[in-house]
Design goal:
With 1012 residues, the chain is an alpha+beta fold. The strands form four sheets. Strands 8-7-6-11-10-9 form a six-stranded antiparallel sheet, sandwiched between helices. Helix 5 crosses helix 6 (140-170), helix 6 (140-170) packs parallel to helix 13 (307-363) and helix 9 (212-245) packs across helix 11 (263-294). Mean pLDDT is 76; it is low at 173-181, 190-211, 376-383, 538-543, 855-922, 955-966 and 1005-1012.
């Protein structure tokens, strides 16, 4: 960047000094030609606006050597820099190209830079010199005019030359191995490659592609011709310019416009060498003219009265030839570019035309078109119009000639010739369609046939379009597509036939209907005279003996004799048929008159007018069951492969129908057997149910009897023993032969037996009738204290310690005191009896809060329990037999109660019926206060396996510390707690003690029983 800035400043300084010294300018005198202005603008156009410091530096250096005041130096540097920046900005905005190969670029250079930017710079520069006293105000207008023209001439003469040199340098790559002469030749060779090509040169260029040796020879000739032309032009230009601008011109000769003699050479350069040649041409002429004028020669001084007028003539001349040369060269360059574009477009069109012709050949697509202007308006009759249309000439593509059977260009393309290639049956359709398109402007799309010279027929599709007064039509060979569509339609019809028959077979089990529909569809599809199905195997079809085959279904035309009911009574013929179809999948006869047949078959064909036949077997498993046949009675017929394939598939479907019919018969037989078996099994099941009911009744009677028989003697013995123990000691010793300790043990055993019997009865009653509760608000500490007092002897005997941790403010629970006492006694007794002596037992009670979400079923649960007051209210009374019905069973006595509470047989009534309608089966969450009681010991613990079934009925574990009676006690305890609406459980580890716990709803919590 600094290097470029320094070079620009140096060039500005040197050219400015040369201009001042050559023109002999003094003090504040402006220059008529100012090359630094052109250098500054070229630098900004080529290197960008970043080069402005070089312009400032060059201006400052140049003015500093002339004794100019600092203020004037600054204003001068500012004005020339602003002028260059303004010119560059205007050219950039106009889309200026530094190649100067467009008229718009030349006009932009003249208007924006030569005239516009210099106007601003000359005004600012001269204002500065006058303001700071370097020039007189009286000379302002003259100095401004001279400065404006001088800067403009500098830009016009210098800037294009620099831009052209820059492009010339950038477009060539010099090699270090090349000599100076070879580099000079290469420069002119590449420059001449941009010249316009004459007709003779085109021939040479075209011939270059023949052979390499010939190409090299013509390249040498081309270089010699071009270099000779350049040398001749340059010699004439230099000679004429030096002769007329540097020699002393006489006044008489100066009256003639001899200065314009180099003008044809400039035009020559513009036409032949494009913008670069024109720029160099007018630059050379201008520089020689200026040099001659400075030396006192040339025509401008001779024809001028003073120096100012000569300078004006010189500026007018250089400006004229520069503008003319630039504009002419730009016009020629644009023309050459247009010619290149035209040639490129023409080549592209030829390529596309060849590609289109190739595509039409591949697609077998031709086209014709007609300009509707050829059909002039006339008042003649319709026949005259048709005659005019038949003779009008169309435009055919080469592929259309070939489609119609002609060689391209061999016939005149007229509608009459076109119609001659059309099939006679289709000519009317084609002629009418083309006539409507030409006369009525109606587009069409038709399919028709054409006949070629060899007699073959092709199917084509023609469609037309009418736009902007022109008719265009395409003709495409669609023979293969037409054949494919025909085959697809036939295949579709075959598939439809198969699917319909298969659907009937799936939807119907009527064999007769299926067979009749099949033969009707087959005859319609084959367009035959007869289609029939014959059964050749008598098994399962109830054919009378000795009949071995029969035609059971037929569809026949009205002109043919019916074959329905024909029977086969020849067993040998049947065996021959089986043998034939065992080795052949089909029998095809195209003409029965041309084949040798057995006498019976020939007689059959003759009697029923069969001229052609197609038969396929119907096979069930590996046995021949029947034949599906199609007959042609009107004449011989050549059967196609797809027809044979279709008939085979139909025979398969018929075989499926026959199999389904057989399966249907088997299913009917199985159904008949199944009904009898179901009836027998139902009778057996009813008998088993009766036996089970009788067993349950006997079990209940046994339990009642056993419990009664056990309770009666035990209770009697217990009463007797207690009476004996209650006597005085003196009386007892006289009458009782046993000791008191034995009697006490007998009493304890009897009480234990009685407890077991009562537990067994309670367990049975809870299963059958449920637990009946009489709940009242209870004070749990008082109940616990009473139970502990009763257990004091047992605690003392087992050396056990019982600790109570019951808060004084514990809320009451709503429970049945009898049942709750039984639960506490069971838990405490188990902890004492089934642990080693010295066990520590803790009874603890506390209040807990349980977050629960009530569901619809939970809300209905209280009504299903016999312990609920409402449930007890609506429960049935004990029946006469002593059995108590369940809550769900209703009697006539409680029908009014059920109706009152809108209850069904389940005894349920929704508690939140209004909310359920809105929120579904889930009810709002509630917090319930419960009283949790725990009985904890530090004994031997319980195994995990035993814990899982601890609360079940009749638990036996010989390896456990538990006894048989424990199972009944815990089972009843669980039933009691559940009936109260609570939970019960155990937590224990072997060797780590046990904790039995249960929870009951507190009185102040949400009572889930329904109050009436």
């Amino acid at each position: 960047m600094l290097l470029y800035t320094g070079i620009l400043a140096l060039a500005y300084f040197v050219t400015g000094k040369l201009a001042v010294s050559m023109l002999g300018l003094v003090k504040a005198e402006p220059s008529p030609v100012w090359p630094p202005a052109g250098i500054a603008l070229a630098a900004l156009l080529l290197q960008g606006r970043r080069m402005w410091p070089g312009i400032v530096l060059g201006s400052v250096l140049l003015n500093s050597t002339g004794g100019i005041p600092s203020a004037v130096i600054v204003t001068s540097a500012f004005s020339v820099t602003l002028q260059a920046l303004a010119g560059e900005a205007l050219l950039r905005e106009s889309g200026f190209s530094t190649k100067l190969d467009r008229l718009r670029d030349v006009l932009a250079l003249v208007a924006g830079a030569v005239i516009g930017s210099t106007l601003v710079g000359s005004i600012l520069g001269n204002l500065g010199t006058c303001i700071f006293g370097w020039a007189q105000w009286s000379n302002f207008s003259r100095n401004w005019w001279t400065t404006w023209l001088g800067d403009g001439m500098g830009i016009l003469l210098v800037t294009p030359v620099l831009l052209t040199l820059n492009h010339a340098v950038n477009s060539f790559k010099f090699s270090l191995k090349k000599t100076i002469i070879s580099t000079f030749i290469e420069l002119f060779k590449r420059q001449n490659n941009q010249l316009s090509i004459t007709n003779s040169q085109l021939k040479i260029a075209n011939r270059r592609h023949t052979f390499p040796a010939t190409e090299n020879r013509y390249n040498l000739i081309f270089l010699i011709v071009n270099y000779s032309e350049i040398a001749l032009w340059l010699t004439l230009l230099l000679s004429v310019s030096w002769l007329f601008f540097c020699s002393k011109t006489q006044a008489a000769i100066a009256q003639y416009p001899l200065e314009y003699l180099p003008f044809p050479l400039i035009v020559w350069a513009a036409l032949r060498f494009q913008p670069a040649g024109a720029i160099f041409a007018y630059s050379i002429v201008s520089y020689i003219a200026i040099w001659g004028a400075v030396q006192g020669g040339g025509p401008f001084l001779a024809k001028s009265d003073n120096l100012k007028q000569a300078v004006l003539f010189l500026q007018a001349f250089t400006g004229t030839i520069a503008l003319v040369a630039l504009m002419l060269a730009a016009a020629v360059a644009e023309r050459q570019q247009a010619l290149v574009e035209v040639r490129r477009t023409a080549a592209m069109l030829r390529d596309r035309e060849a590609s289109l012709a190739n595509a039409q050949r591949i697609a077998q697509l031709g086209n014709w078109d007609l300009n509707c202007a050829a059909l002039t308006a006339t008042d003649n009759c319709q026949e005259s119009a048709e005659h005019r249309i038949s003779n009008i000439e169309l435009r055919w593509s080469n592929e259309l000639y070939r489609l119609l059977g002609f060689a391209p260009g061999t016939v005149k393309p007229t509608p009459e010739v076109f119609l001659q290639a059309v099939h006679p049956e289709d000519r009317e359709l084609v002629a009418r369609s083309q006539r409507q398109a030409m006369l009525e402007r109606k587009a069409y799309c038709i399919n028709y046939r054409i006949v070629l010279a060899d007699g073959s027929e092709r199917t084509v599709c023609e469609q037309s379009a009418i736009e902007s007064g022109a008719i265009a039509a395409t003709v495409q060979d669609v023979t293969e597509r037409h054949r494919t569509e025909t085959a697809l339609r036939a295949s579709s019809d075959r598939d439809r036939l198969l699917s319909e028959i298969a659907l009937r077979i799936r939807n119907s089990l009527d064999l007769e209907e299926i067979l009749n529909t099949t033969v009707a569809e087959v005859r319609q599809f084959f367009k035959a005279d007869r289609a029939f199905i014959g059964i050749v195997d008598a098994d399962g079809v109830n054919l009378p003996n000795p009949v071995y085959g029969k035609v059971v279904a037929e569809s026949v035309g009205a002109q043919c004799r019916s074959l329905l009911g024909w029977v086969l009574a020849d067993e040998n013929h049947l065996e021959s048929q089986k043998t034939f179809y065992a080795n052949n999948r089909v029998r095809t006869i195209s003409d029965t008159a041309s084949v040798q047949l057995s006498v019976p078959i020939a007689q059959l064909y003759s009697d029923y007018q069969i001229r052609a036949t197609l038969n396929v077997p119907i096979v069930l498993g590996d046995e021949l069951f029947g034949i599906l046949a199609v007959n042609q009675c009107s004449g011989p017929r050549q059967w196609q492969e797809f027809e044979i394939d279709l008939l085979e598939k139909l025979a398969t479907q018929v075989a499926i129908a026959l199999q389904q019919a057989q399966l249907l018969q088997q299913v009917k037989a199985l159904n008949a057997n199944l009904e009898s078996q179901v009836e027998e099994r139902t009778r057996q099941l009813q008998q088993k149910m009766h036996e089970l009911q009788e067993s349950n009744r006997l079990k209940d009677l046994f339990l009642h009897a056993v419990s009664h028989n056990l309770r009666t003697p035990v209770m009697g013995m217990l009463i007797l023993l207690k009476n004996l123990l209650n006597k005085s000691a003196s009386d007892s010793l006289q009458d009782v032969p046993v000791s008191r300790s034995i009697l006490e043990r007998i009493v304890q055993g009897s009480e234990h037996q009685l407890t077991m019997v009562n537990s067994l009865l309670d367990a049975h009653a809870s299963e059958v009738k449920g637990i009946v509760l009489n709940t009242v608000p209870l004070h749990l500490p008082s109940l616990a204290s009473a139970i502990v007092a009763d257990l004091e002897p047992m605690l003392a005997k087992n050396q056990a310690t019982l600790t109570q941790e019951i808060p004084t403010d514990l809320p009451q629970v709503k429970a049945d005191s009898k049942h709750l006492q039984r639960v506490l006694e069971n838990l405490l007794t188990n902890a004492i009896k089934h642990n080693p002596p010295g066990v520590n037992i803790t009874f603890k009670a506390e209040v807990i809060e349980v977050e629960t979400v009530l569901t619809y079923e939970e809300n209905l649960q209280p009504l299903t329990s016999p312990n609920n007051p409402l449930a007890r209210c609506i429960a049935n009374r004990i029946s006469a037999a002593g059995d108590r019905p369940r809550i769900g069973e209703t009697t006539q006595k409680n029908q009014e109660t059920l109706a009152k509470f809108n209850l069904d047989g389940s005894g349920k009534m929704p508690r939140y019926q209004g909310q359920i309608a809105n929120i579904g089966s889930k009810l709002p969450g509630v917090t319930v206060k419960m009283v949790r009681c725990t009985v904890t010991d530090n004994g031997v613990g319980i195994s995990a396996k035993h814990r899982e079934s601890l609360f079940e009925l009749y638990v036996h574990d010989p390896n456990s510390r538990q006894l048989t009676g424990l199972g009944l006690g815990l089972y009843l305890s669980k039933q009691i707690i559940k009936a109260h609406g609570g939970e019960i459980g155990v937590e224990s580890t072997p060797g780590g003690g046990s904790t039995f716990w249960f929870s009951l709803p507190a009185v102040n919590s949400d009572d889930r029983s329904l109050s009436i």
